[in-house]
Amino acid sequence: MASFLLEVGTEELPASFIVDALRQWQERIPKNLDEHQLTTSKVNVYGTPRRLAVLIEGLPIQQSDRNLEIKGPAIGSAFVNGDPQGEPTKALLGFANSKSLDLKDIFIKETDKGAFVFANQQIVGRETADILQELAPTWITGLEGKRLMRWGNGDLKFPRPIRWLVSLFNSKLLPIALENVQSDRISQGHRVLHPRSVIIDTAIDYVATLREAFVVVDGNERQKHIVTQINSIVELFGGKAEIPDDLLEEVTYLVEFPTALIGEFEREYLELPQPVIKTEMVSHQRYFPVHSLKNPDRLLPRFITISNGDPDKSRLIASGNGRVIRARLSDGKFFYDSDRAVHLETFLPLLEKVTFQAQLGSVAEKVARIRAIAKVVIASIANLETTEADQAIIDRTAQLAKADLVTQMVKEFPELQGQMGYYYALSSEEPIAVATGIREHYQPRGASDSLPTSLAGKIVAISDRIDTLVGIFGLGIIPTGSSDPFALRRAAAGVVQIAWESDFALNLPKLLQAAIAIYAEKNLLAKPAETVLENLYKWFKQRYETILADQGIEYDLVNAVSGTEDLAYTLQGLGNLTRIKERAHFLQKSREDATLSAIYEPIVRASRLAVQGNLDSVTVDVKAIINPATLTEPAEQDLYQAIAALPSQPSDEQLMEGIIAITPVLAKFFDEVLVMAEDPQVRQNRLNLLGIIRNYSRKLADFSTILK
User: Fold this and answer.
1) Which residues pair with 173 in a beta bridge?
2) Which of 165, 556, 644, 672 is the most buried (most CB within 10 A)?
3) What is the spatial distance between Cα 354 and Cα 417, in angstroms, rounded to a whole number?
4) Got the DSSP string for 10-21?
5) Entry pTM
6) Is the distance from CB of 632 to CB of 681 less than 8 angstroms?
7) Structure confidence by residue, pLDDT tens digits, 638-658
């Protein structure tokens, strides 16, 4: 068995590209090898700021010989008059010549499309080294990423210039070339600790050879070293490091030989809000914050940085990093003090100069719409009771929610929007409920973010997202593919998640119609209101269907609560957004405990037959549409009585119990009664009975879409 090494040496690569490139290689290279009948025992991918590498172990020296059954032309085309005993046609002769076959080696075989000519062909396995020589360059040029560049006079695109290539099959140099770079067995060590060339003798020695040159090529190994060093250092100071996953991954791919260092800054900077300090450290300097071990909520005036330099210069490097963070925190303190010198409300007029969207006006105009929409949100939640004091808090939150956008701190650090509004609201002596609502109305910022917990935060969060959705959809800008510059998918998902988490009986159609009317009054709609509304219905439907699927609800059950092509049923569900989630999870549980399968056939049969009648899809009062005196058959009389006994406003459990109770009566009805009777009145009565069962069951699900 053999090993193959491919190393691509470059100028310093972005950490994000390294991570993505290694993921692509780990996925594509094994598949590529399988396609060429090359089995392996292991495919290792490695990356540092200056190199990408793949080490493949357990390769055969050459492909195995194999026999292939190859298909030729149909009998009718292969022989004159389609007679296998007759003369071969040009089609058959051409097939034989192209595959280097003797006509005596062909045979006839029946397929599902008729009889065809076949032949067995032996394929002699190629040398593995020859195949790798062809494949390796495509692994490099096939990498995808953002901001690829050309350099020199070549056409090759890569994030940074390629400086060297190593390509070894065991100990043999395998020549490949990219532009003017020829492969060799010469790699490069650490820029500072081993600033000279490194000879790779054999592919399998790659990791060990680079380690001697102070390059830890394995990202997982580097990450473990980083975490171990961080934890060892902070223990000496009675602290605990905060290690965000994203930062850890980025730092891992910014260094080749990591050394964790601890730095410090003046205690006076701890008076700044923690989000400011952490943003300075994590987002701008790639430092790890340090918390007190005794009081985890308290930051210490220290930080951890990961150096790629000389460990003997650690004290000097830490000192330099300390000067940098002090300067950054000093700027932050200046911004913080300046912003707090005035009331948060003072910033509101400045929002008139900030554009939300060119055709939708300023942020100040958006704030006015959010305040109006917030009132509609409150009115659209059937199970929400608010006092005048609650409504005043919500309105004040909406009014001040965007004020911090024009503060000096948020201009410098846009990621602190909302968080600084919280601190500035408190310093302006606004109620804590208003300050909390300002901070929370941006939540959730992503799939893993927490949801608002305060009433003001929830209502303003929904209002802000509804305003954005209606405004952008009103301009006819609907995201396609992965492009979503206004984060409309996240906005709609946020509305759904907040409503579900809060058990809000949110009437989404009512809310959207009112929000669209607000836009229409201001002549801000570029598309007809009906079109905007229909598109938003579809948009929200797609979002909650995706969330339900992520929660483990099977797709046919998602369709059953959502309505596939039935807009009326979709709107019925959107009239109480939280009920959609409750019904979906109840159905999934019913499937898992076999309750659903017990009622499936008769209910589905009733639902599908009911379409033959003319009963609407809402009526469930059997007494209002059927006179029991007109029912002549015992089975239909029994079904009438069973339907009449169903509770009018059932819970999911009661609804399911009612359906279970009616199932044997319904099964008997189907056994003993001809639904499509010749007498129009009799037929209509029976279809109406089934229609009411369908409508009643639709309170839970559209059973016609459920698969057995």
Assistant:
1) 168
2) 165
3) 14
4) ESPPPHHHHHHH
5) 0.82
6) no
7) 999 999 998 878 888 888 888
